[in-house]
Amino acid sequence: MKSLELIPVHCFLHRIFPIEFYEDTEKLVNDRVFKPRKDSEPLLLTFPLDWESKERVVDRNWRMQLQGWTFLHPIMNIFDNYKKKDDILDFFFDAITDWWRFYGQDPEDIVTTRMPKSYAWYDMSVGFRALAITFFINRITCWQMKISKERSKLLEEVAVKHIRHLLKPIVFSMNNHGLFQSHGLVGLLKTSPHLSESLDSDLEYAIGLVEQLIISQFSDLGVHLEHSPHYHFYALNTLQAQIDSGWYHDRPRIITIAANANNNSKWLLDPFKRPVCVGDSILTVQKDIEFPNTHHGKYIHSKISHSGYSVVRSGWGECPEISSMLFFTGAYHSKSHKHRDCLSFDWFDRGARIICDSGKYGYKSDVYRNYFLSTRAHNSVEIEGFDILTIKPYGSIVENPKEIKQGLFYLKGTLDYPAVKHCREIYFKPGNWVLIKDSLSFARARGFKQWFHLNKGYCLENIMKNFACFRDGNGTKFLIECLDKELNVELHYGDSDNMQGFICEKDYQFMPSFAVGFSGQGKKKEVFTILSLSKNAHDNAKKFLSSNLSINVGESTDSSNEHKKEIILGVENKFFEDCSAIICSDVELSGEKTFQVFSNDILFSFYGSFKENSKKMAVFLPGATSRKHGEYDFQRYSWGRQLVDFDCIFFSDPSIKIDNDLTLGWFQYAEDNYGIEALKNVLDALLKAKKFRQDELLIFGSSGGGFVSLKLSEYFDHALVVAINPQLYLYNYTYSFYKNMLKFCYEGRSPSFIELSYSNRISFCSSAKNRMNPVLILQNIADEKHLNRHFLPLSKSCNIEPVEVHKMDTDLRSKSLHLFLYCDDKLKHAPPNKEDTIHYLRMFCEATFFV
Questions:
Q1: Domains in the chain, ordered, with CATH?
Q2: pLDDT of residue 124
Q3: Rounded to whole angstroms, how far apart are CA atoms 124 and 559?
Q4: 1 has a pLDDT exceeding 50
Q5: Helix/strand/coil percent split, the chain, to 5
Q6: E-only strand ranges, 384-432
Q7: I need a surface site. Which of 150, 197, 371, 677 has the fewest CB within 10 A?
Q8: Residue 75 and residue 77: Cα distance in Å, rounded?
């Protein structure tokens, strides 16, 4: 029975545009222009038409769309709102009359290859046509439009021929093309004049095809199995359109798979909601997909490995500009949209792609299509004489990711054939580095080449042996080093002679980019390669490699001798490998000497003045230094002898290094290794070693040291914290000092990026409530810059009225933050002298009962 229900237009189309999208709908109907892609020249459709497109033999997609009548899609989009519907019908009937004249007598069981001579009966073309025929039958019926007997007969003949063709099992394709074939068949059976005795069984067969295909196209978790995140969304939209037609309401498995596919779609998108460019994928934002606003500040990983994908990424609620993501692929379910990309990966970090999979290119049969399909176009290993597409599909070869320690993830995939074995292990520290271990084993000696493709926009800074350094337009560094010095390195950039060094983000719009290759030969080989976003991250990856995988990376792992030399002439220097060594060596924390310890791979240096009967611990943080002191400046370290009740610790800022010219670093250290967080670990270890509680800790600093002390107050809510004339918002300090810090600690990133991405690092957060001991800020009103740019904005934001210091209460425990003012016209920003500062500290200790 014919359907009298107006089926939504999107149930028939693969591209939906509302009528408002088209500037001139009458011109659209009357001009009859075919332009299937942005890159193609428009074709004026005049009949009779060259349906075989003899002049466009190499453009397979263009030929398929012409035979699929996709030139009708724009007018189908506007049909229901267009007043002159008869003009649209004239266009439709002119087209199918001409097409029928050429193909109406063809056999009904034609089966084509993937690259046929004619696209007239190509699976996708037939599916598109069947849905267009169904649409016009439905609209003519529902809008009760009058057509001539000749047109009515033609429409019935065209519909019946497509039904008979699609009922032949031999023509059906078990891929995404079959989605259109089967759905088009159901539509024709539901709407056409084909009212045979076998209608019910034909419908059951057709709907069964839809269900069978969806089950084969998607995993149980709803991940599309055609090796292309872009086609996942294409197939999902098609599936949703099928469901919205109302023709499959009695098939619950179809509904369940669609729900799972929608839920797991987010794993296939980068933080900007663009499909990862694996297989035939392009960077098209999926606006309809919503990320849940969850997992802020965390890293999460997927559990969809049986689909062939393994993903680690920042939490869904994280801002894209500071997000990380690594997408690892090892999928081969069929040849549909499959590239030679086994064990390739795509790395997104800090708001941009870093290492890129090649992308789709398009379906023109040319040298570029061949390149984008090849192993050399992906971030994998090209193996001599091995072509995965000549071998039976393996399904999935990747495992679900594992978090092996906080913030460090492990991914693995194994390609295992008798003649060729390739196991790839990836260690991923988001925001920092990727360590690749490729274990290769061949039945005979073969040549191999490990390829890595950088995103567009990188410039080469230097290359030396198997090490290369690049920088993008925002100043972000990228370092790559193959640790096997026997391998040869090669570099390509838009190299059309050797067909290497291109990426593609949109159809046919490829662009040059750097490709780095490391090549060798043998039967068995283990290759380690480090990719990192800074020199510090690179060193961190090497240290992880040598410590955890027992690999000699050419550097000494014995740091103790290097750091035994005196920092201050005549003063003993003690070195600890890490913070745990401090805790186990409290006997070493005695007398007056300098100390050095690694925390989070940052070397901290401090002067310690330890007493036998001390009752508390006082930590002093440095402000700006003069480089005449060299790399280390333990400001105020002579004060330790006067504070007889305190173990006193005087830190030097690790951001001040021998190879930079910083004079003020605020303990920022590096973008991928925040110094204040590492400093917190050192203080924790010192407290444990000396058996002090947090409420027996005093933290003090002025100016830049005042900022660091206030940042530490966010970690130590039981400590007493005192800051004099501190910076509170680093971006409000003298710009040249701030810019220089960004240059060396954040590799020159723009101030706007830092303020967006790391506002918590460069400003004081005063939101701590119910502190055991308060935070006390003392500001000289003669220091007008700090008063107006830092102190008063904080006072206003916290709604705290400052108090003159000599009028303060004798009990300051009533609230968490106290703001005090004093006046010294001579010293201005310079802190009070030693006697006055110690006087203030003792006064504050008494007023907070920190005695």
A1: 9-173 (no CATH), 299-548 (2.70.98.70), 565-692 (no CATH), 705-728+764-851 (no CATH)
A2: 94
A3: 65
A4: no
A5: 35, 25, 40
A6: 395-396, 402-405, 408-416, 420-429
A7: 197
A8: 5
